[in-house]
């Protein structure tokens, strides 16, 4: 029997952040991981996908230099070497998430799958661990839809596609969400014909105006995107897979990538033995991320049943560490959490979209817009496609949507504004270096005050009066 203060199940982003913080502040910590250290983000998600996108960006740059007087050339893509770059990226980052590093913090790491045997006890690798508090940080896996025939054809998920070393002849992607769109553009830029099949609207969670810009770019690059096209059957064999659509059309390809969402990984945990309530979405928790049915247990990240992002798992770790280590009240919020689809141009969002803000605030809402075409840095780099849209209520931003170059970086400013409750005057008053892309956000903030200053007759009369009185 191992007695400990804190037992963390899952060594992904959230579990690792929590383990490192708790151990370094003096808690006894046991960390249990049945798969690879670093979880999905390092091994199958954020890291490999961004490495693949970076390689694809280099290939695309070789074909798009005419604007700068650079003759376009067709890149020679060594697909296996591209995957070597992906593997090197993972290997370079992996030591930061390694068992050895966390054992150096004083964490006891057990490499096995855990299952609850009682309300205050789990078993892993033949060892029993009893803890004052448990944190479930098991993440999620690719959800496979129950399409007839899917069990009879080979398919890829984000957990297997990065190991593919030969370029597909034609890649079919089921799902037009962020994963599907990112993988579509990456493979198309690396020379692979791609068809995306989406049952509803591609990038359906995002602002439709901004999503349309992203999808138009992909289509211009040669990605076929079929929307409102449910798949009713899958058939074929390795190298020749056929997707039959509801309207009778058929799409044929050599490889199939399933990117239709995520399933929370709770099946192995035997939650019933601990009296932990859960649904298909995740562990049932309160705003403090604590189980509603077993007060010893918390859940963070995907396991908590909310937003499924690596940065949310890290944020959740900070929320629960205050409660577990110091007994302080702590609640998770969501209004300030940003998200990014790393296509090109990037698509980023924090807070409410325009439609959500209109539904919530009605006539009190002001929507500000600034296009990248008015930004000098964007003009110099010939990357003028995109815009910033800011939703404002009562002088404070309640949401921001950005599509354009480096939108994932630019959204951080608005995430700070929402997290800190900043006013638009603070945003308009900042000074940014010239020329930088951040000026699009400053211009958007300034646009909130322009009508009050430039279109107000009382301001003009006041200025004229002051001018007459000044010596």
UniProtKB/TrEMBL annotation:
Residues 337-444 form the Pyridine nucleotide-disulphide oxidoreductase dimerisation domain. Disulfide bonds join 41-46. Binds 1 FAD per subunit. NAD(+) binds at residues 175-182, 198, 261. It comes from the Bacteria. Its cofactor is FAD. The keyword Nucleotide-binding applies. InterPro entries: FAD/NAD-bd_sf, FAD/NAD-binding_dom, FAD/NAD-linked_Rdtase_dimer_sf, Pyr_nuc-diS_OxRdtase, Pyr_nucl-diS_OxRdtase_dimer, Pyr_OxRdtase_I_AS. One of its GO terms (molecular function) is oxidoreductase activity, acting on a sulfur group of donors, NAD(P) as acceptor. Pfam families: Pyr_redox_2 (PF07992), Pyr_redox_dim (PF02852). PANTHER family: MERCURIC REDUCTASE (PTHR43014:SF2). The keyword NADP applies. FAD binds at residues 50, 138-140, 302. It comes from Gemmobacter fulvus. Keywords: Disulfide bond, FAD, Flavoprotein, NAD, NADP, Nucleotide-binding, Oxidoreductase, Redox-active center. This is FAD-dependent oxidoreductase. Residues 5-316 form the FAD/NAD(P)-binding domain. Belongs to the class-I pyridine nucleotide-disulfide oxidoreductase family. Signal peptide: none annotated. PROSITE patterns: PYRIDINE_REDOX_1.
């Amino acid at each position: 029997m191992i007695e400990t203060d804190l037992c963390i199940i899952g060594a992904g982003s959230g579990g690792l952040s929590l383990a490192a913080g708790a151990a370094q502040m003096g808690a006894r910590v046991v960390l249990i991981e049945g798969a690879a250290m670093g979880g999905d983000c390092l091994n199958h998600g954020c890291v490999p996908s961004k490495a693949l996108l970076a390689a694809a960006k280099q290939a695309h740059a070789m074909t798009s230099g005419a604007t700068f007087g650079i003759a376009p050339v067709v890149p020679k893509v060594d697909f296996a070497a591209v995957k070597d770059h992906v593997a090197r990226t993972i290997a370079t980052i992996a030591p930061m998430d390694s068992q050895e590093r966390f054992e150096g913090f004083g964490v006891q790491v057990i490499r096995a799958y855990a299952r609850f045997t009682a309300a205050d006890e789990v078993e892993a690798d033949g060892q029993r661990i009893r803890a004052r508090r448990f944190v479930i940080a098991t993440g999620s896996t690719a959800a496979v839809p129950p399409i007839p025939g899917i069990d009879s054809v080979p398919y890829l998920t984000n957990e297997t596609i990065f190991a593919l070393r030969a370029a597909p002849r034609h890649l079919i992607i089921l799902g037009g969400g962020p994963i599907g769109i990112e993988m579509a553009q990456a493979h198309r830029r690396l020379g692979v014909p791609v068809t995306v099949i989406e049952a509803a609207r591609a990038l359906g969670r995002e602002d439709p105006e901004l999503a349309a810009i992203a999808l138009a770019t992909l289509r211009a690059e040669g990605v076929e995107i079929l929307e409102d096209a449910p798949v009713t059957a899958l058939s074929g064999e390795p190298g020749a897979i056929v997707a039959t659509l509801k309207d009778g059309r058929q799409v044929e390809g050599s490889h199939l990538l399933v990117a239709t969402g995520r399933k929370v990984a709770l099946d192995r945990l035997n939650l019933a033995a601990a009296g932990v309530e859960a649904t298909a979405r995740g562990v049932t928790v309160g705003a403090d991320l604590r189980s509603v049915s077993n007060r010893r247990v918390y859940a963070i990240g995907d396991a908590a049943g909310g937003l499924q992002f690596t940065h949310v798992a890290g944020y959740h770790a900070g929320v629960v560490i205050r409660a577990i280590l110091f007994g302080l009240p702590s609640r998770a919020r969501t209004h300030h959490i940003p998200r990014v689809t790393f296509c090109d141009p990037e698509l980023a969002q924090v807070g409410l979209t325009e439609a959500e803000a209109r539904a919530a605030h009605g006539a009190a809402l002001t929507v500000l817009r600034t296009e990248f075409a008015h930004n000098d840095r964007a003009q110099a780099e010939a990357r003028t496609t995109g815009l910033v849209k800011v939703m404002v209520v009562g002088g404070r931003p309640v949401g921001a949507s950005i599509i354009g170059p480096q939108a994932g970086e630019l959204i951080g400013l608005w995430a700070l504004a929402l997290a800190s409750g900043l006013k638009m005057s603070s945003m308009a008053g900042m000074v940014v270096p010239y020329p930088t892309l951040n000026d699009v956000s400053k211009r958007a903030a300034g646009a909130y005050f322009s009508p009050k200053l430039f279109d107000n007759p009382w301001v003009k009369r006041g200025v004229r009066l002051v001018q007459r009185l000044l010596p």
